[in-house]
Amino acid sequence: MGLDTQNLETPPKPGSPEARVATAPVTRSDQNNWFDSTKSGIASAHRVMDRVGLSNVELTDNTKISDKSPTGKTTSPKDLDATRDSLKRTAKENLSASDLNTFSKNMETFEQRAKRDHLSDSEIQATYQSVDKLLSAPFGSVYVKDRNRLAQQVMELAANPMKAKNGFNDTCGPSALETVVYMTQPSVAADLITQSALTGKYHAQNGTTIPVDLTPTHESDNPTTYTRSYASQIFQAASLNLGLRNQGSSWTYHDEHGPLAKGQASDYYTDAFGKRQPFPGTNADDLIASYTALTGKNDLTIIDNSSDESDNIKHANSPQDLERILANTHMPIIVGVDVRNQPFWNERGSGYAVGADPNTNWGHWSTVTGYDPSLNSITYSNSWDTISHQISPQDLFRATRQAGDNLPDMNHDFLQSLKGPYPDYGTALDALRIRSETGRISNTDLNRLFDRDVAGLIGQRHEHSLDDRTVRHDVVELGVYLLNHKSFNPSPRVRQFLMAYVQKHFHDED
Fold first, then answer.
1. Which of 259, 275, 291 is the endpoint of a domain?
2. Global pTM?
């Protein structure tokens, strides 16, 4: 429930935003930043609907802009062809030649993916219809150029859901959810963006209506390879706030819109009184509430050992447990991991690349998109990049544990490797990093063991031609991380090697 304005002694619901930030310090000035929804008036929205052929639909605060058949009629190939042709015409009328080319390729990729993932023609048609409305509407709550931008980004995400990113924001959970929704029900995501852009509000399938903040952040207006798009910004904030309402909370999530000062958080809550509160990230219950309100379904599976088990939340207590869950669950699913564990540490850029402050928040949500027991391989995506990754059940299980809990196994693996020709100094370095982070090693031992393991890797590199990527990940990233600690003082030989390698390779793309 939301904060009780009548009885301030009423304790907040366990796990709610109120409970999670109850003892957290407020580091930014109090500010009331409620959404401005005055620009999404009913009369303006009616004009939009007149122009896009929906004038027979009565628009109220509780009307969802959607033309899905209430009878559930299956879309025929002829119907899909007509909808596809309409979208192509609309795109041609509204997009530049280069943007149209990219848009058309994404349409083709989307239909190929839809066939591979067994999406229905009705799902494809509904997605196209929402994007068509977004492109063709003469009025809306954002400018035409922004509506065109959103339409292109929605089609790109429908074609490749793994392009959903959280960028420099603590929204890895909503980003993982975004990937799930675009994979399985892209029409829901497209409808959310279209409703929001045209009316400044979103009316969900469960009847909840929320205002949507449409102001682009500095990040979404200045895109790079690793930043979050405007469409993802809207989806993630809206789905998170929808989940909060679905749990009875009166708190609201916000993005910071301008350039961020050093150390400034990119997002925050406002409580029931409009007072700013720190945003600690999302938990499993938040994601389930958002998904259910968005899709009208309750079939999302989350593996999270830090949450209480439920019909939706599963615990993996061993690699075999994890394999059993994956084998008996429809993909995709969301998995909670500790980013101090490999391979997430390297993929995130030693914990410093994007997202939450690595000194305070090690939790991360990732999306598992496939499992092949014959290959002992799990396919997953991260909100830090746009590609698929492969991992074994053993390694993913370890990633779901608190990093310190893996130290005995890591030590055992290293000792076993010493019996072979190639000692696993990479694992030894990872264990050393985790021991340092968790306060389980003295400064003297930290320096001594780092020198030993780096010297071992340098020797392996020359004797056995280890590739540069291995050296970069196992030495450079850990070395740069440790160099931020004043107590870290490697030997002159190791320091010279480390800094020379950094200057030559550290900024290269993988």
1. 275
2. 0.81
